[in-house]
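Incident log, support desk, overnight shift.

02:14 A customer reports that sequence design results differ from what the structure should imply. Their input is reproduced verbatim below. On-call engineer (initials T.W.) acknowledged and began investigating.
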């Protein structure tokens, strides 16, 4: 019974730390497996590792371009979250970018193949910052912790009754089920939410929200292959484009107000 009691203790500890919050779009979230301070530390460590493992671009003009877009977007964040964002442009051909808790943004030089103007680059960066301000990293860590401890309890119970081999089988196939039914669907939900938050954020910063559609069209055009949606962490491309187009129309007034207020980024 000791493995069962240990698994129960771990689960209770995770559950005690978890809290229910509301995301920027009104979605219910369960977070709290790590504190904000711990999350920011994890972000800083991951960013330092990325800088140690991947060479940074020596192109000062492109680096300043990315920095300008990041600054324009982060100025629209809530007070206390605007300043101090660290930016790195990595020399890597992959068309990608990321943002981490603690105010870190990394962009790969390959993004310039698909982000053909500042508005399209803003769509990428605002999407990634959307993950951070929507607390997706904490939510993902909390869900992962709950999935692992839940499988630990089931495995311990099965093992106590049927032996270690049965417990290992539960752990192996249970992990596949958790990945497909819990973790990946949640990630797709987060991707859709980051689209919503990011497109709003870029419009408020004075970037044309319609360009998010063009950006993802370029992304799809450069993708050579794609896994089925149910095994992917990203929404279906056709659905994503449809949603981006629909929201862009509704965000035009906010974009025009930003422009009228003098928020007219001139990054490159």
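02:41 Re-run completed on a clean worker. Output:
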């Amino acid at each position: 019974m000791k493995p069962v009691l240990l698994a129960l203790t771990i689960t209770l500890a995770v559950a005690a730390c978890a809290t229910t919050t509301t995301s920027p779009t009104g979605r219910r979230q369960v977070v709290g497996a790590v504190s904000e301070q711990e999350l920011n530390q994890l972000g800083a460590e991951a960013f330092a590792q990325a800088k140690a493992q991947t060479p940074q671009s020596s192109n000062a003009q492109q680096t300043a371009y990315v920095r300008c877009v990041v600054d324009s977007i982060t100025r629209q964040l809530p007070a206390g979250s605007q300043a101090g964002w660290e930016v790195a442009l990595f020399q890597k051909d992959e068309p990608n970018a990321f943002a981490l808790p603690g105010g870190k943004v990394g962009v790969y030089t390959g993004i310039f193949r698909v982000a053909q103007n500042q508005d399209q680059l803003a769509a990428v960066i605002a999407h990634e910052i959307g993950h951070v301000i929507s607390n997706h990293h904490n939510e993902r860590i909390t869900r992962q912790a709950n999935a692992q401890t839940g499988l630990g309890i089931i495995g311990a119970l099965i093992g106590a009754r049927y032996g270690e081999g049965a417990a290992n089988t539960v752990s192996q196939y249970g992990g596949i089920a958790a990945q497909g039914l819990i973790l990946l669907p949640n990630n797709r939900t987060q991707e859709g939410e980051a689209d919503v938050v990011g497109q709003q954020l870029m419009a408020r910063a004075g970037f044309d929200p319609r360009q998010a559609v063009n950006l993802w069209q370029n992304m799809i055009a450069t993708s050579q292959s794609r896994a089925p949606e149910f095994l992917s962490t990203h929404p279906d491309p056709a659905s994503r484009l449809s949603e981006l187009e629909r929201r862009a129309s509704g965000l035009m007034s906010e974009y025009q107000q930003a422009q009228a207020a003098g928020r007219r980024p001139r990054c490159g």
